[in-house]
Design brief:
The chain is an alpha/beta fold and 201 residues long. Helix content is 49%, strand content 12%. The protein is built from nine helices and five strands, in the order βαβαβαβαβααααα. Strands 2-3-4-1-5 form a five-stranded parallel β-sheet, covered by helices on one side. Helix 2 links the parallel strand 2 and strand 3. Helix 5 packs across helix 7, helix 6 runs antiparallel to helix 9 and helix 8 runs antiparallel to helix 9. It is elongated and about 55 Å long. 23% of the residues are buried.
Length: 201
């Protein structure tokens, strides 16, 4: 069974994956999959189970491999494709859309940019207060978008001042972004940890 979860609300997609798979699943990066890998990924078993749970991230960007997916609709495994963008004009999408479950996860459109910038500014002098401000909005916001907005503010700060502190903040934001995309930690926990340390950078 193949399903496609797509959209810009990464947090909701991750929650949906966890709801479906719990914590016992394989994660593959779509960009690194070769055509020759598809039979073993989508048809091969493992030492521990005949039926595998597989999450594949951004396979749509690997157009050559994505185009072959319709040939593997009979996979015995539970497969979720996690796509940030989905090209609905592609032949592969048209072949898949009536054969697999496709679900979109969109970010809320009510992001208060000024409030996000206020949280970031507050963190520079008082991390605990910044975390309290974040906790008031975290149920309605996407942490990845918040980090993106903070990064844009930090970039402006660096362009204006170009000091050592501004450089360290940018570096830590870059590390935070990588951690949020590559670990199983709760993204808001990582964001709060960053806010607590900004004043001491």
């Amino acid at each position: 069974m193949i399903e496609i979860f797509y959209g810009d609300d990464r947090l909701k997609i991750e929650q949906a994956v966890k709801t479906r798979f719990a914590d016992d699943y394989e994660v593959l990066e779509g960009a690194s999959i070769e055509l020759s890998d598809l039979p073993s990924i989508l048809l091969g078993g493992s030492l521990f189970a005949e039926q595998r749970k597989i999450l594949i991230k951004d396979l749509g960007e690997n157009k050559e491999v994505f185009a072959k997916l319709p040939e593997y609709l009979n996979t015995p495994h539970e497969v979720i494709l996690f796509e940030t963008k989905l090209d609905k004009r592609s032949a592969a999408y048209k072949a898949l859309k009536d054969q697999v479950k496709i679900q979109e996860f969109k970010l809320p459109e009510n992001v208060d940019m000024n409030l996000v910038f206020d949280i970031f500014k507050t963190a520079k002098r008082d991390g605990k207060k910044a975390v309290e401000m974040l906790e008031k909005i975290e149920t309605t916001q996407d942490p990845y978008m918040l980090v993106g907005l903070m990064a844009s503010q930090a970039t402006r700060d660096f362009e204006y001042r170009q000091g050592a502190k501004e450089k360290r903040v940018l570096k830590e934001l870059s590390k935070l972004d990588m951690k949020m995309k590559s670990t199983s930690f709760q993204p808001f926990s990582l964001l709060k940890s960053f806010l607590l340390q900004v004043s001491s950078l």
